[in-house]
Amino acid sequence: MKSIFVGNLSFSTTEDEIRSLFEPYGAVDRVSIITDRDTGRSRGFAFVEMGNDQEAEAAISAINGGTLGGRTLNVNEARPRAERGPGGPPRGGFSRGRSERGGGRNADDYRGHARQPREPRW
Prior knowledge:
The chain has a domain at 2-77: Alpha-Beta Plaits (2-Layer Sandwich), CATH 3.30.70. The chain has 2 helices and 6 strands; from the N terminus they run βαββαβββ. It has helices spanning 15-22, 53-63, and strands at 2-7, 28-35, 42-50, 67-68, 71-72, 74-77. A 4-stranded antiparallel sheet has the order 2-3-1-6, covered by helices on one side. A two-stranded antiparallel ribbon has the order 4-5. The protein is elongated.
């Protein structure tokens, strides 16, 4: 089974529209539009699973660069999601407010106490 990434979708695109786009190239096993966890709104990409690798390759080459809903589609073979270890950096690679020098907001080690007053900056 081959999984295909379909990107740059309109937020109003439905699973049926994607399925009908891929079905001329072979049997579509599953279509999954990825939605935002909080709002339930589409994130603008989906995954299509096709049982036959040759049909999937034909669909990728034919549909990539095509349009759906007035948007140019980015279609390619889906890659496995990169594993992140526990406590690893967020996806953006930032370290949640701490600088490389180990400072940050809590540099004076006031953890567990009420916020300490600061001197004015002028």
